[in-house]
Amino acid sequence: xxxxxxxxxxxxxxxxxxxxxxxxxxxxxxxxxxxxxxxxxxxxxxxxxxxxxxxxxxxxxxxxxxxxxxxxxxxxxxxxxxxxxxxxxxxxxxxxxxxxxxxxxxxxxxxxxxxxxxxxxxxxxxxxxxxxxxxxxxxxxx
Length: 142
Prior knowledge:
By secondary structure, the chain is mostly beta strands. The chain has one domain (25-142). Helix content is 0%, strand content 35%. The protein is built from no helices and 9 strands. The chain has strands at 2-5, 18-21, 34-44, 47-56, 62-64, 68-70, 84-86, 92-94, 114-121. A hairpin with a 2-residue loop joins strand 3 and strand 4.
């Protein structure tokens, strides 16, 4: 299996391209062995962006398969965001015992994690006089 970020044909920012080659076989990941880390990447040009890092915390590798659904919920387990569905283009074998990444860090050499990219436009609203959306920040409980 060969994975590349950014994918072939996509515009690259900077001069770095991550390529992961994998031929391992592994059992399917279970939610109990996965950890999700939220990285707020910031706002710019009227949009907010963030990344959810998916890592395997168990002692053995696991196969991440999709689809993956993301939905923010409040403390009462009620949805507070729209649901987003992600498909995993190719089965991805995650590295075991993957450490939490520092806020601006990258995984250790050879370590395989998953990443979900999130983006939301917030600048343009329907209300005069400024047509800017009022701030309504939602901080999901999970």
